[in-house]
C-alpha cells in the first residue's frame, strides 16, 4: 500500500498544485478612456440639432465654385460665467485637402464627382475650418437661465477643379453628413 502511494504521490502533487494555484491571465488589449467634465453646458436648440442645407439644383460648370449659405446654431441656457465656445466640425476630408469635406456618396452611381463641402467662420473674416477642426472662438453674449446665443457659420459647395476654364462636372447628387460638437473654454 505504501508503494502504491509513493508511485501516485508525484501525480497527486501535480493535481493538487493545479487546483490550488490561481488562474493566470494575459492582456489581450487595452481600453483607452478619455472625457471632460464641465460645470454645465449650453443646450443646443431643437432646430439646431439637425441642420439641413439644400443647395438645390446647380449648373454643372465652373460657376459652381462659390455657392454658399449662412447657417446658425442656437445655444440656450448657457451657464452663468460661460464666456466663449468653439464649434468642432467632424467628417471625412477629401484626399489631399484638409479643408474640404468629402461627400458621403462619393464614387457611387449617380453621385456628382469632383465636388465637396467647406465650413467657414463668419467672424472675424470668412476663413475655412479644417475637417475635424475647430471654429474661431464665439463670444457668448448672454449666459444664465433663459439665455440665447447664436453661432453663425457658412457652408459652401465647392468644385474641386475650380478656378477657371469651362470644364464640366460629372453630374449627379452630392450628400454629406457633418457632425458638430460645442467646445467650452
TrEMBL record:
Gene Ontology annotations for the cellular component aspect, listed alphabetically: pilus
Pfam families to which the protein is assigned, alphabetical: Fimbrial
SUPFAM superfamilies: Bacterial adhesins (SSF49401)
InterPro entries per UniProt: Adhesion_dom_fimbrial, Adhesion_dom_fimbrial_sf, Adhesion_dom_sf, Bact_Fimbrial_Adh_Pro
Keywords linked to the UniProt accession: Signal
A Gene Ontology BP annotation from the UniProt entry: cell adhesion involved in single-species biofilm formation
Signal peptide (from-to): 1-26
Fimbrial-type adhesion domain boundaries: 31-181
Origin: domain of life: Bacteria
Classification via PANTHER family: FIMBRIAL SUBUNIT (PTHR33420:SF26), FIMBRIAL SUBUNIT ELFA-RELATED (PTHR33420)
Protein name: Fimbrial-type adhesion domain-containing protein
Source organism (scientific name): Serratia marcescens
